[in-house]
Amino acid sequence: MTTDRNDLNMGMRCVKYMIFVINFMFLLTAILIVTVGSAIGTIFGDFEYFIDSHFFSPAHLMVAIGIIMIFVSIFGCFGAIKESTAMINIYGVLLAIVFILEVAAAISAFALQGQVKEMVRRTLNESMASYNDNANVQQSVDFMQRVLECCGVDSYEDWTFFFKNSPNATEGTNSFVVPESCCPPSTLKESCIPYEYGCMDRLQWVVAQSAALIATGAITVSFVQILGSVCAFMLARTIRRTKSLRAARRWQLQQSLGIMTKPHDPSYTQMEKSEKNPDSEMYLPNSPSVN
């Protein structure tokens, strides 16, 4: 009996440790998701004038999913400590909901990849057209050209259509007028040599790779989430079975020790034999003799 009880306790401890390990993995995954989502959101924020607002949604959704996963992991650990099958089942349902959110983030990121090229070309042309009229746009365009080391949409020649008679103009090679951000810092003091490549391909690559990273990361983590949900339901079933076996062993122990499971009825008293109620089997002196 003691051996069975020790086996049950060991089994329950194994279940708890397994839930703790799974939640620790989910916690690390949640931190990774929040980090990736925040990083991509920051990259998009640096180029916000060239990226439509709905492109920020997958990154924000990834951050929200990571925060939700952190609370779900804490909830799962608390359920394991309490040995509550209801809490573990709720934990599995929450993981399934997180799985759906991750699939939605992956689908939206994959769908946005097909819109990147058209969006980047449109926003670049719009930004270059308002370069001289909007200081914020001018700052964003200069930042993009310096960071990506590019100039114009397809080449530095594109500035010919947008940058005539500007006080910020710098005359480059072949008498092309370009912003100072088109020139490497080492050539500003001499004759400006604009960057050879346009910003179209480079900015498109940054946005497309960021969307692909969100999509692949969400898909990868979603498979881990659905496996975690299945494991949670299996662990809840194991906890329920272990608790039932523990209760059965406790009942058997009580029976073996002679403990009554039903309450004793004090109103019941054994009827004592008296002279008014003689036993019919009792022989009395005045009874007729049997010869």
TrEMBL record:
Q: Which family does it belong to?
A: Belongs to the tetraspanin (TM4SF) family.
Pfam families attached here?
Answer: Tetraspanin (PF00335)
Task: Please tell me the species this chain comes from.
Answer: Aedes aegypti
Q: What InterPro entries does its record include?
A: Tetraspanin/Peripherin, Tetraspanin_animals, Tetraspanin_EC2_sf
GO CC terms in record: plasma membrane
Residues passing through the membrane, by range: 20-41, 61-81, 88-112, 211-236
What is the membrane topology noted in the UniProt record heading this document? Multi-pass membrane protein
State the residue spans of region: Disordered: 260-291
Output this protein's name: Tetraspanin
Organism superkingdom = Eukaryota
As given in the record, the signal peptide range reads none
Chief subcellular location equals: membrane
Q: Indicate yes or no for the key word Transport.
A: no
Give UniProt keywords alphabetically.
Membrane, Transmembrane, Transmembrane helix
